[in-house]
Amino acid sequence: MPAKLLKPRVLVAAVIVVVAAFAVAYFTLFDTGSPSKLTLQTKGSTAAVPTGDLAGTWTVADGSVAGYRVREKLAQLPAPSDAVGRTGAITGQVTIADQGGAYQAGSANFTVDVSQLRSDQDKRDNKIRSIGLETAKFPQAAFAAAGPIAIPADAVQGKAVRVQADGDLTLHGVTKRVTIPLDVQRDGAQVKVVGSYQFGWSDFGMTAPSLPPFVSVTGNPTLEFELRLARQA
Questions:
Q1: CB-CB contact of 193 with 155 (8 Å)
Q2: What is the pLDDT of residue 29?
Q3: Which domain holds residue 10?
Q4: Distance between CA 16 and CA 157 in Å, rounded?
């Protein structure tokens, strides 16, 4: 084969090898994966058959988590990824009433100790204590429903349903009226509630916690949570 034809092929092969080597090194040296979004698994669901009375006071149980998700670009990485911080430090309750076979959830209020948020980076966790969320100054986030929420009949039987919750969300010391979509399902003796809410930094008096050239935060953050509620005896 003529040398003039061979050289371009060798060059292309060399480029492919370099790109492949970079890809291997990138995915080996840097963990680009982020925790999956919190969702209520409805396909192939393994939710247990509902047990016990639905009416009563339900409080936050072990296994509940809440936190944030936001897009960021680290200086040492070539592409942005999701920064995710979560905590299980959640308290709160909701009262479910039976009104002639129709159920309503009322007096729903929940509080998250955001000072205990943890991600995969200690440096990030320390920084949000003084910038962005400023958790050292505003250690709590809270949500209080504005009124009762009707519970669909399917949910009483254990099917996954979506409802809307209107209420007051407090973040960074600022309270705003919001509407949060909730996916709800009874699972044995528990009730699972999963939701997320995206907001603008300025909505709650915050600025994106970017630290050029080391970290660039892009887009709006998302509050996400998975509550596991247990009925009080």
A1: no
A2: 35
A3: 1-30
A4: 56
